[in-house]
Amino acid sequence: MTPYAEVIGDPIAQSKSPVIHNFWLEKLGIDADYRTCHVKPEELADYFALRRRDPAWRGCNVTIPHKEQVAPFVDELESAGAKVGAINTVWPDGKGGLNATNTDIDGVKEALRASNPAGRPVVIIGAGGAARAVFAYLEGLGCASVRVLARNHAKARDTLKDFDLPVTLCPFEPGGAGLADAAIVINATQLGMAGQLPMPQFVLDQQADTGPDCLVFDMVYAPLDTQLLQRAAAFGRTTSHGLTMLVGQARTAFARFFGVVPDPRDDAELFRRLTT
Question: How many Å apart are CA 260 and CA 254, to the nearest integer?
């Protein structure tokens, strides 16, 4: 009976998780499999009931639209999952129960290379669901200055009420100074993604106002080298692409499933496999 883990969602064919996890299984010589499983919302209860009884199942990653719907089916939710308000990893506890968490915070940490802004502003573009892992990470870091560029400040405030952060809401429009002297800039929107609206020109241009040592992280990974990152590099800023977070959050999940932390030194080869 071959052990296995999987990713569930609706749809699911687009997931890159099997490429990532099967790459690590091969590298580490682990006799196991990682696959996709198409689960519709109305099938979640039956899915988890069946997996609880499957001794070969090592857990699952959870993608859209289930991340906020899984909590009733698990027994223990780690603080990261509770803080982010969504679950992306579930695994058996070995005693018949199910544990759950959200590993996106680890992905953010990896993408930011454990940067410490040392009191200087961290700027987040967007305040939707993707930004919650960023806010949770910055809260844990004890970040002293956070600026959020958001079109809808009411929605942004509703999200930010769950986090103890010193936040300044900035207008998402030309003429502002939201990026001035920023130590870190993070795009937590779909702006710049293939098939989505482009990143506004004023944001691209305002990167000239960031600190010279600024790290610019774009959660978008299709394309990998977004306009935001291209412009940041043109100004001499350090950049971090979206696959870094994707692989970072998967690394923690893999350790939950298979008990081994994959070596980051293999990431360059993994990135090539993910982009070819």
Answer: 7
Residue 104 tokens, joined: 């996106």
pLDDT tens column, 75-101:
999 999 999 999 999 999 999 999 999
Separation CA 181–CA 58 (nearest Å) = 45
pLDDT band at residue 176 using 50, 70 and 90 as cut-offs: confident
List Cα–Cα distances, 118 to 105, 142, 143, 184, 238, in angstroms: 19, 10, 8, 11, 17
Residues assigned a catalytic role: 67
Q: How far apart are CA 11 and CA 273, in angstroms?
A: 22
Complete DSSP assignment for 156-187: HHHHHTTS---EEEEESSTT--TTTT-SEEEE
One CATH from 3.90.780.10, 3.90.550.10, 3.40.50.970, 3.40.50.10860 for 4-102+244-274: 3.40.50.10860
Domain 106-240 adopts which CATH fold?
A: Rossmann fold (3.40.50)
